Amino acid sequence: MAGRKILNGLNEALAHARGEIDAREFRVRVPDMIDVRAVRVSLGLSQAEFALMFGFSVDTVRNWEQAKRVPNAQARALLKIIEKEPVAVKRALAMA
Is 96 helix (H, G, I), strand (E, B) or coil? Predict the structure, then answer.
């Protein structure tokens, strides 16, 4: 199954590079909800480690996990990327 997703992604990237996909037709779907705790736990990080690694405050992470606050659309998008590609996010956010 994972191999099929990778192949589909590669085929889509090639089609885009060949100009077969109009970027204006591409739509991003930001999830309505995301389980911040599950994302953090899957990475084996404490709240403080997760916050520091990805640029959130500890209070923000705590409030999200306790459902006192809900991540806005931009935060949900970043959290989804962290969930799927944590290494790429760490690399992109790493201090020089």
Answer: coil
Give yes or no for residue 43 having a pLDDT over 70.
yes
Neighbours of 54 (CB within 10 A): 21
Q: How confident is the model at residue 12 (pLDDT cuts 50, 70, 90)?
A: confident
- The mean pLDDT of 10-24, rounded to a whole number, is 73
In order of start, what are the domains of the chain with their CATH numbers?
29-93 (1.10.260.40)
Q: How far apart are CA 23 and CA 8, in angstroms?
A: 17
User: Nearest 5°: phi and psi at 70?
Assistant: -120, 130
Specify the pTM.
0.72
Kind plus residue range of the DSSP H or E element containing 51: helix 47-54
Residue entry with tokens 């999830």: 31
List CB contacts of 12: < 8 A, sequence separation 6 or more. Answer: 21
